[in-house]
Amino acid sequence: MEQLLSQEEIDALLKGISEGNVETAAEEVGAKAEAAPAPRAKAQILDFAKYAKGRKERLPSLEFISDRLSKSLRSALTLFLEREVEINVAPAQYIQYGEFVKTLPLPTNMNIVTTEYLKGFFIVIFDAKLIFCVLETVFGSNTITVPKIEGREFTKIEFNVIKKLVGIVCGDMEKAWEPVYRIRCKYSRSEINPNYITMISLEETVIVCEFAIEVADVMSWMKICIPYGILESIKGHLISTPSREDLEMREKWLQKLRERVKEVPLDLKAVLGKKKISVEEFLRIKKDSVIITDTAADEPIEVKIGNKIKLRGKMGAYKGNKAVRIEQILP
Description:
- By secondary structure, the chain is of the alpha+beta class.
- The chain has two domains: about 200 residues, Chemotaxis protein chec (3-Layer(aba) Sandwich), CATH 3.40.1550; about 60 residues, Surface presentation of antigens (SPOA) (Roll).
- Helices cover about 35% and strands about 25% of the residues.
- It has ten helices and eleven strands.
- Strands 1, 2, 3, 4, 5, 6 and 7 form a seven-stranded antiparallel sheet that branches.
- Helix 4 crosses helix 7 and helix 6 crosses helix 7.
């Protein structure tokens, strides 16, 4: 009981705490906490550009296009090689170009195919075994044997055959893309080393469509690499897969549109002659006056559609009526 504080001592202690004359334990702890440096948080660098390039929306129509291409290419290669060819399609891969290149063996036949109506290019890649299957068939071999491929480059004659093969693939690609979007493919050049293709960065996302090809019990493959960036402008065409009903409806609509367009009336004007005169000469014109035009009688006259010159011909008569015989159609 002797250790208890009196009322006066308690009042004095409380007053000292409130006025700051007495240091408390909490303040000491707080002071020590302020004095001690806070541990530094570890930060990680995030490459936003790389993250954005890696996340790409899938385009279902490419599966539809790949399926059409496999069927068309199977018939074309069977006819070209005069052997039964089987083609199976693998699901499309969305991968960085640098990672894709690491999966390719050397030597690899890579062919740059430019695409009209689509600003960019495709890369058509053939397995070396497929190339030699085609070569032996083209040069008349009854059996197909795959020679040692490592460390060997293709000859000029072999590249000519490869170019022919790329032409077949290009023609079938145009047909496969037709229901979705019109493209025109043209062979540009071939490479055997992926490092020589510098038009695409290693970080860019590409879509890889792989086709497993079997010729005379020899398994090989073909891959089509499409930079995702060139498809951004036509993404609306590739988001949804066209059905057979959609294709039939689109064809009927186009046919109907062609028929209705042919019914649009056109205003044709045959300009027999022109003459540039002054206002004074115009005021002197009277009845029976003769105006000499700048066009001679035997010169071609212009025929306008709207306000544009589209045709040229010569003046004459047909079944008692004045007529123009068309001799030139202008673009």
